[in-house]
Design brief:
Rossmann fold, alpha/beta, 2 domains, about 40% helix, about 350 residues, 7-stranded mixed β-sheet
């Protein structure tokens, strides 16, 4: 059951737009309700529990007397993005930034006072892995295109476990929080899907967790630890599918691959690539993990256009040969066919 996030600001258009945006984000476990006056807010709160109240910083504390709410977050007109506190010590976020950034900061401020099930659906997310022992094979471009196409029909989360993904450059985004922060929350026992919401960004309808800023952070995370986080997110069922782009700095990658229902493995057609693929298969057999190989689908991807530009590379992938390839592949998946080829 979703809880109520009430929004009041002296600018009614701001409150309306914020509430509309929030209600379009399925991963946010609140129903946002905008108010044009404190009197209407007070009347509503007397009849319906308000879990979280976002209030403009021009509203005095005394004006909020009689309004029952679990927590207050101020919408501040001063300061900068990144969060803070108001003069009264109430958490505050800078209102004049991108709405999704405001929402992430609000979720980071929100304090869960008891275990919550909020938006859990009872359906476990499917996890699709994209991994290859071969470098420069188009793996990340394929994974991003796969995520974008699947997100047109269902809620999809993209997680990059690449040590150098290039994602911030491809999306022209700066990240306040990344996978590093999410792992830190788990280690501190503070994880909740509300915390997850404070880390998630969106690109063209695809939700994603920004990758680590420093490769050393990824090397410090164990496969068991990351598998626990992915398993927890999947168990909450907020997303229909989680697409994971695997890098080579992950310790104990096999524990993560074991969570995947299918593992797409892009390859190149040359002698070295063939040797590496055979060596990986041999390793899985020797280590007693051949059940993973049964989930592997070998892919020979179309070559990217030579004239591709970074500024709109993701769009070029989506609407070019790679997009056509992935649309055909996912069509076979829906029909219950084989995903790629076996080797």
């Amino acid at each position: 059951m979703k809880r109520i996030m009430a929004v009041y600001d002296v600018d009614p258009f701001y409150a309306d737009r914020f509430a509309e945006f929030t209600n379009q984000r399925e991963a946010i476990p609140f129903t946002a309700v905008a108010f044009t006056s404190l009197a209407r807010l007070r009347e509503y709160a007397a009849q319906q529990p308000v879990e979280l109240l976002l209030i403009g910083d021009e509203v005095k504390d005394g004006e909020l007397e009689g309004i029952a709410t679990g927590q207050i977050v101020r919408l501040s007109e001063t300061g900068a993005a990144g969060g803070g506190t108001s003069n009264g010590g109430t958490p505050a976020v800078y209102k004049y930034q991108a709405t999704d950034s405001v929402l992430r900061e609000v979720m980071a401020c929100y304090q869960v006072k008891r275990p919550a099930v909020f938006a859990l659906t009872g359906t476990r997310s499917q996890i699709i892995g994209v991994y290859s022992p071969i470098g420069r094979c188009g793996k990340t471009g394929f994974a991003l295109t796969l995520g974008q196409i699947l997100a047109r029909e269902n809620k999809v989360l993209f997680v990059s476990l690449e040590e150098c993904s290039g994602l911030s450059r491809l999306t022209a985004s700066e990240y306040g929080k990344t996978l590093t922060d999410l792992v830190y929350d788990v280690r501190q026992g503070k994880y909740s899907h509300l915390r997850l919401g404070s880390v998630v960004y969106n690109w063209g309808g695809l939700d994603y967790v920004p990758p680590v800023t420093y490769a050393e952070d990824l090397a410090d995370m164990s496969g068991e630890e990351l598998a626990g986080i992915l398993g927890r997110i999947a168990g909450e069922g907020i997303y229909a599918t989680i697409v994971v782009d695997f890098g080579h700095f992950v310790n104990g990658v096999e524990q993560l691959l074991a969570l995947c229902s299918v593992i797409y493995a892009p390859v190149k057609e040359d002698v070295v690539a063939s040797a590496k693929l055979k060596e990986w298969k041999d390793y899985l057999e020797i280590s007693g993990r051949m059940e993973l190989w049964e989930r592997v689908r070998i892919l020979k991807l179309p070559r990217p256009a030579m004239a591709a530009r970074r500024e709109n590379y993701l769009e070029q992938l989506l609407w070019g040969e790679m997009g056509d390839y992935v649309r055909t592949l996912t069509g076979k998946q829906r029909e219950g066919g084989r995903h790629g080829t076996k080797s």
